[in-house]
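Protocol step 4 of 6: record predicted structures for both targets in the notebook before any analysis. Target 1:
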Amino acid sequence: MATVLIVDDRATNREVARITLDDGGHHVIEATAGAEALALARSEHPDIVLADVVMPGMDGYEFVHRLRADVDTADIPVLLYTASFRPDEAAPLAAAYGVTQVISKSADPADLLVAIDQALHSEPGTTTAVGSGDGDHLRAVNAKLVEKALALDESEARFAALADVSPVGIVSGPYGLHATYTNPRLSDITGLSHADLHGDGWLRCLTDSDRDELTGIGLPGGQAGYYGEIRLGPDHHRWLHTTVRRIDDGETDPAGFVATVDDVTSVVEAEQRRHAEERRRIAERFDSLARLSGAVAHDFNNMLNIVLSFTEFTADAVRDATGGPLTGDDAGAMLADLERISTAGRRAAYLAHQLLTFGGREVVTLTVLDPNAVVTGVAGMLGSLGPQITVATDLQPGARNVTADGAQLTQVLLNLATNARDAMPDGGVLTLTSRDTGRDGYVHLTLSDTGHGMTADVLDRAVEPFFSTKPKAQGTGLGLATAYGIVRQSGGDLILESEPGHGTTVHLYLPATDEPVAHVVAPTAGPAGTGHTVLVADDEDGVREAARRILARAGYTVLTAADGRQALEIARRHPERIDAVLSDVVMPHLHGPELAAVLRAEFPAVPVLYMSGYADPLMSEQGLLDPSVTVVGKPFTAEQLLTALHTVLTVAVTR
């Protein structure tokens, strides 16, 4: 192990060399300048010296010269260690000072260890013609200084060119936080001159709290970022992102700092506008939901008021008639009250149906339709629009078929035609067209009127439920909303185009298909259910009892269950055959689809049909039912329930 004296003014360079020498098993002592190194050489007499060439005060050549001039240190081997000179540049002059080898600081650590070992096992170099070498020494050092100065000038010019076109402001200073340089971009950002920004002026790019923190703590150990809204004048404020970085030379005190100032005002303001727009949209959605809930509550409360009041009237009439003869007048009054209850119930059912349709959660039956045939059929129904309304059609021959629910598509066209009539109180023309172009994979239907048209704000809200520009009691505000929901659930799109004074055009885009039109057989009511057993599962007592009565009156044997788990237990325990299961979709313990899955595994021959007012759990993401699923929509009539059950039983028998 040898003692190596490292002489270098930069701590990082000494640290790198020390690590390499420590790994090589050597003992290291350090000096930061030539005079300190000479004193250590005399007191410690190291085995070898590793000295930098370019150092302040005393360069490496002068250090070696003085080391050789002292008899106590003249025999110590010296290696020069440089990043400024190439070894071949420094070697000739180094040899004149008794230095046998020059090592580049970028050399591999192993090369340094080899050079140390070689120097330790060779005779120390002797100074030759040192006096005449002084001129060579000065010329070499001066040449290198000129080279470094030119390189520095080139570097500064390059930096200035880059700084001048930089998209961010740049600040730098040699010490503390006092700026000695700012680029033109910083003046553009702040509106301040270079003179105003120099010194402490650039700190105006920080918020008050950030400025107090930075000046109180001083330069960060590495890099620190600051962000905020900066007010640079009464009418001048900017959002700035400032990054401050300390520049070290390897010693304890920083050599200086550099800061960048990025003007992010446009980004922040764009984000603020986006958030404001999002808040506006959220507020509008809440307003729309408030109008929707208010309108639904209003209509349902009206209908419930009719149901409850006339139910009470009927109950009073029955109590009054109990024990005595029921006259025709009394029976007629009771039946009239019951009819009012029935009418209110049908209105409530239709309103619920429209709301589900708008939400795309109504049960639809998609079939293949000829769009021209549907439009022609609807056009034939529009003679009642009014004597001053002319209905015209412009249908493309051979337009491809579409997939849609035929009844619902007819309803859409009729609703849109009614809206068009209301928009033409003084008469006009309603034109229905079909085109097999416009969008790939779609057939394009339009309904165009010559009415008064819609303003932009009305057009923007036209498909909202319960939004209507018609006088009170002349429209529910659900026509366009329902049409929109039907078309979207069919896999198509509905787009409105309107302008005040130029009428309205409704564009319907329906999925096209090359399949032929399906031949639909109208369902027929089933015969009496004698000999058939049906298991009914529904957690709502009233619905379960209504289904039981309807089926029992039709001759079916009916088993009932209050939830899916109870239905499964009954099916497993029942000793005789169960011919069909009629199940609610959402029930406690076991939902309808879960019950059906278990039954299919244990009783594969037993068909399951559902009854539901909201069949969402059975639907795909597109809001469609699997063709094999049968759903009886709530509320249902006796005819609807019996027809659906008969159809399911007939299919089961034919399998």
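Target 2:
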Amino acid sequence: MDLLRVLVVDDDAVLRIALKSLVAWQEHGYQMVGEAQDGAQALALCQALQPDIVITDMKMPGMDGIALIRRLQVMPQPPYIVALSGYDDFALVREAMRLGAADYLLKLELEPAQLLQSLAGARSRGHGGAAQNLPGKEERTRVLRGLVSRFYLDEREMKTQLQAVGIAFPTEPVWCLLIKAGELYRFEETTEEEYQTLQFSIFSIVEEIAGDCLHAYAVEGKTGEFYLFAALKPALQGQTGLVRQTAERMHEMLLRYLDLFCVIGIGQGDASPAGLTAACRQAAGAVRARFYAANQAVIEWDGDRMPDGGGSSYSIAPQRARLTAGIVAIQEDAVRMALGQVKHDLATLHLPRNALLASLLDLYSGVREGLQQSGRAVGQVLRASGRSLPELLSISGIGEVQDWLDALEDDLCAFIRLENAEGYQKAVQKAKRLIEERYDGELTLQELAEELQLTPGYLSALMKKYAGMNFSEYLVHVRIGHAKKLLLGTTDKVYAVASQVGYADQFYFSRVFKRVVGLTPGEFRKRGDVR
């Protein structure tokens, strides 16, 4: 398989580095041939290197992403273009897609699986040529992701895209089922290969169960989230109770076969792009309501109980994501910045009451999700700001909103200061010592967390904060470090070295070693390199 040549364009050096290290490029059929910090530099590199794929930011000094795409499209063989954007770049993404960008990626939700899925379309287009007549799964995935993110061009264009990739529903209404995993560390603390296996297993179970009575399409969202758009098969039209029964069976089977606990939110709409987007939004709202649903595993959207801010142009999603991440990472500055932006937005935008309450519920669910991932009881942390659903819905004015946000900030920052004062850095030091002692065996995050009397998700967050990498990354770091010493200091065969550092599969060890070191174990030994 020929390697597709990739050029990355972004004025943020940190993001360029993150992109370059996000996946094992060559193993997936790609070659990183260059990087540029603005459009003018990228254009010169494109003319010299002729990349097959260009991943470009939209906002850059000088020649921005839009200007670059215009110039690239007049080349004899335009590259396959993927736009990088933030939550607030809707107009720029719309223009980029109109000019010929094949896909877009949200920077705050950049994941290896989504990046690879986005790039997969380049091969079917023959290094930037015309797309094949028959739509592939990656094309359907791209369109469904547009629905999930609500980041598509307009109603008419999305309808055309749905038709072009063969997405159609035989009956109405159409339901959206959002499956949200309860243990995100299961996705974050994995190798790329393990992640792909888990993702494949989830899709297989969900699609097989849905196939009994539903005509359905599945797509992955953010980490640990899976969406299913589905309609009843014609022979079963009207038997709406089957949708909930299907969701309950999915929950049961995911728990039984993958030991994966999840909650499933259900929303409903018609088959139009606006109806599908509304169903998706309702499903997300139902999942957010899980904290008030008395431990229900399947939650149907209740518009009478939960306000829907879908009619508002304001989205609290970016700040919710930053706030949740700040809580999990135990970062006071991140919490203060996210809440400070929310206070400013809500004070100046004068949102309708329905949109205001929807934003507060969304934000509060993010707080509770962050505390849940950290293994901390809400009542112990939110001493002054803890609210029940009726209490939140009774908030009447912006003054009361600001008072609650102030109390929420005080509670969260007090929690973070206490966590830091309690010396969790020592727990990480102990975790590192235990990894050093047991790296050659079957050591798991779950086992280590139990020994340290922490939750797995919280230990993963502590490792990221104090060790600079999560448990899985640190374990690989230790194993490869010892492997390098053995390769240079002994004549043991590669399979023996692999076994001594905890890898039963020599070929898997070799892939990991090359991804980390840049050389195969044999090449490393021949060079006598001590890097």
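Step 5 preliminary note on target 2. The chain is about 55% helix and 10% strand. The beta strands are 4-9, 30-36, 53-57, 80-85, 103-106, 174-181, 214-220, 225-232, 262-269, 298-300.
Proceed to step 6 after PI sign-off.
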